[in-house]
Amino acid sequence: MASPRWKQLADEIAGEIAQGVYPPGSKLPKIADLVAAGRGSRTTIQRAYSELTERGLTIGIQKLGTVVSPILGKIHRDGTGRYMQVAREQNGARGAFGAEIERLGMTPGSTPTVSRGKPPAHVAALLGVENDLQEPVLIRTRVMTANEIVVQLATSYFPGDIAFGSQLEQQDTGPGGSKSRLEELGHGQRTITETINVRSPSAEEASTLAIPAERQVYEITHVARSTEGRAVEVCVHVVSTTLWTLTYTWPIDPPDAASDPA
């Protein structure tokens, strides 16, 4: 059975994007122009454009219309190696995100907001702080970009007795970001646990990420612990599922040389 016309048109335009007819950052034709060209009814073209946005190939920009996404293809987040010192400080990067985006050939950006405040209850539990007693923590909220497109929202929480008065409270945390500063403070991170959930974005998240409200996001809850097992950072990352792919690699028990017949 043939696909509906709106899907056929979405596939056609996706092919034209791949071929460079509409390069990244360019505007797609106005709906009226495609109607006049005989490519479908207004409803068909609107549905096709919505499908392209859902696939992550286009974004809607107020007063400009439908624009081909400046980022085609997914951002690869290597959860295994991105936090190693050599990776997060590469070329003076301000942390794992910046170094990773630069390795992908894009320009990273970050707009931080730094404050002291009460963490959400689940974060307080992870940090082991007395949430009911209003024990404050350091909060760093960032809107993060690649090639000037918002691709990630991240909020980090640090225990106040570690972070208050340190460079972690500055807008620029320096080469290697917060993990390098914690290392210098004697609270280097030694184990990391990341829990990933897929959910619908809040209205504010969808607006900031410039994605449809129907699109799903990955929520990555990152918990980093010191040698003593203390949680010294909890970070909640929110990213679009159509824009990111997540990779993790870990060793498993090696074969017992004494019993392995090989």
Set out the fold topology:
Elements: H1 5-18, H2 31-36, H3 42-54, E1 58-61, E2 65-68, E3 75-78, H4 85-88, H5 96-103, E4 108-117, H6 121-127, E5 137-146, E6 149-159, H7 160-163, H8 177-184, E7 191-199, H9 203-209, E8 217-225, E9 231-240, E10 244-247
Parallel strand pairs: 3-10
Antiparallel strand pairs: 1-2, 4-5, 5-6, 6-9, 7-8, 8-9
What sequence of helices (H) and strands (E) makes up the elements?
A: HHHEEEHHEHEEHHEHEEE
**Biggest pleated sheet:** 6 strands, antiparallel
Shape: elongated
Strand order of the largest sheet: 4-5-6-9-8-7
Distance from first to last alpha carbon: 54 Å
Which spans of ≥5 residues are poorly predicted at pLDDT below 50?
none
Number of H- or I-type helical stretches: 9
Which band does the percent of strand residues land in? 25-35%
What radius of gyration results from the CA coordinates?
22 Å
Which range best describes the helical content: under 10%, 10-25%, 25-40%, 40-55%, 55-70% or over 70%? 25-40%
Structural class: alpha+beta
Mean pLDDT: 90
How many β-strand runs?
10
